[in-house]
């Protein structure tokens, strides 16, 4: 065999070896990519599972508002004494002045509180004989704005939460449905005048009218 033939054979063998090494490297890289893709897919699936379970748990354990009652109500201004079908009222004709949102130790005029409901407030009422610690708990539980808290005689349950056209009877200050009701209906979808003032009105006294 000539020297040139030997040289060509060695070159082909060298290229074959290089090709073999290149193919081995490419196969190794493919395996690495597949392992990485599998790992990422597993992590994503785990995250999706955790998120899905968390959402399911939150929804499944969220207190139900199935007991919320809904009513069709009017909404005209009047300076005459108003009568309401619900107690506490959830809407209806009301005084032109609204009740300043806040905590009241004494009952408040319905005509003023209803006007605050029209502006998107939630009105939480409680029986006058509710234990003091529960009254304090209610004060701590309600948000600072668009809320009215006051005692009321003759309630059908220890605590009642009312918004415009909606109402729920609660077992007490620790009833978990209170927080859910407030989140759902304070400035909620039924509010006739969302964002209207809840300050600058009456502090609980019906304004006097002159003829």
Question: Describe it for me?
Answer:
Strand 3, helix 3 and strand 4 form a beta-alpha-beta unit. Helix content is 41%, strand content 11%. With 211 residues, it is an alpha/beta fold. The longest helix has 59 residues, at 3-61. The protein has a 6-stranded mixed beta sheet, with helices on both faces.
Strand percentage lies at: 5-15%
Strand order of the largest sheet: 1-6-5-3-4-2
Count the DSSP helices: 4
User: How many β-strand stretches?
Assistant: 6
State the end-to-end distance: 131 Å
Topology order in helix (H) and strand (E) letters: HEEHEHEEEH
What is the gyration radius calculated from CA atoms?
35 Å
Largest sheet: 6 strands, mixed
Percent range of helical residues? 40-55%
**Would you tell me the overall average pLDDT?**
87
Structural class: alpha/beta
Low-confidence stretches: none
Q: Tell me, briefly, the overall form.
A: rod-shaped
Structure characteristics:
single chain, 211 residues, alpha/beta, six-stranded mixed β-sheet, 4 helices, 11% strand
Question: How would you summarize this macromolecular structure in one to three sentences?
Answer:
The protein has 211 residues and is an alpha/beta fold. 41% of the residues lie in helices and 11% in strands.
């Amino acid at each position: 065999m000539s020297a040139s033939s030997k040289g060509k054979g060695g070159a082909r063998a060298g290229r074959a070896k290089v090709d073999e090494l290149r193919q081995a490297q490419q196969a190794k890289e493919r395996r690495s990519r597949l392992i990485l893709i599998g790992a990422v897919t597993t992590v994503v699936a785990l995250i999706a599972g955790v998120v899905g379970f968390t959402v399911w748990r939150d929804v499944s354990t969220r207190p139900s508002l199935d007991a919320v009652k809904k009513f069709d109500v009017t909404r005209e201004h009047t300076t005459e004494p108003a009568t309401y079908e619900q107690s506490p009222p959830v809407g209806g004709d009301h005084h032109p002045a609204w009740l300043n949102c806040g905590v009241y130790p004494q009952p408040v005029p319905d005509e003023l509180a209803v006007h605050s409901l029209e502006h998107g407030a939630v009105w939480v009422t409680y029986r006058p004989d509710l234990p003091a610690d529960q009254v304090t708990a209610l004060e701590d539980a309600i948000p600072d704005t668009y809320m009215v808290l006051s005692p009321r005689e003759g309630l059908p349950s220890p605590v009642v939460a009312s918004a415009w056209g909606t109402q729920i009877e609660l077992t007490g200050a620790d009833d978990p449905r209170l927080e859910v009701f407030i989140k759902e209906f304070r400035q909620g979808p039924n509010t006739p005048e969302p964002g209207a003032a809840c300050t600058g009105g009456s502090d609980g006294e019906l304004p006097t009218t002159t003829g």
